[in-house]
Structures are given as structure tokens and as C-alpha cells.
Design goal:
Layout lengths: L1 E3 L2 E5 L3 E5 L5 H10 L4 E7 L4 H13 L1 E6 L11 E2 L2 E2 L1
Parallel strand pairs: 3-4, 4-5
Antiparallel strand pairs: 1-2, 2-3, 6-7
Length: 87
């Protein structure tokens, strides 16, 4: 589910937030509130731009986030399974 420019929320017995360089922290938080999010299992940051860093900081201040995957972590073939979601 698209929750704003540069942000996609995936849910299926777990919550995964996918962020790209177009994300805006304020609109992201508004989208997460509208979606009824209370916690996030995984946040995937596809880039290390200032907007993604701002969004990550805002999300971490307001939500319980179990794991954050940063660009340097995505170079491996490792995957992570949360509920029925595979990242």
C-alpha cells in the first residue's frame, strides 16, 4: 500500500516499510497514522539521502521499529522473513 511519495507499507502478519529517496518525513508520518500503524517490524531504506535519514529519525521517534535495513546491508543475498512477508 502506497502511503505517500517514496513510501510503501507492506502488511501480512507483519509490517514492512519501504523508503526511497523521494520520501518526506511529515507526509510519511501522516500516512502511517492514516494506515493505523502502531509498530513496524522492518524498515527498508533504499538510499542514504537526507530525506530518508530524516524519515528514519521521525519513524524511530514515534514507532517501535524492530529492524532497519540500510543500503549497505542490502548488498548481500540475505533475506528476512516476517510473518508471510519475505524481504
Amino acid at each position: 500500500m502506497r502511503i505517500g511519495e517514496g513510501a510503501t507499507l507492506w502488511r501480512d502478519r507483519g509490517s514492512v516499510l519501504d523508503l526511497d529517496g523521494r520520501v518526506d518525513a511529515e507526509s510519511l508520518l501522516a500516512g502511517l497514522r492514516r494506515a493505523g500503524v502502531t509498530s513496524l517490524d522492518v524498515v527498508v531504506a533504499r538510499t542514504a539521502t537526507a530525506s530518508v535519514r530524516d524519515a528514519l529519525d521521525a519513524v524511530r521517534r514515534r514507532y517501535d521499529v524492530r529492524r532497519v535495513l540500510l543500503p549497505s546491508n542490502t548488498r548481500s543475498d540475505a533475506s528476512l522473513r516476517v510473518g508471510d512477508l519475505s524481504v
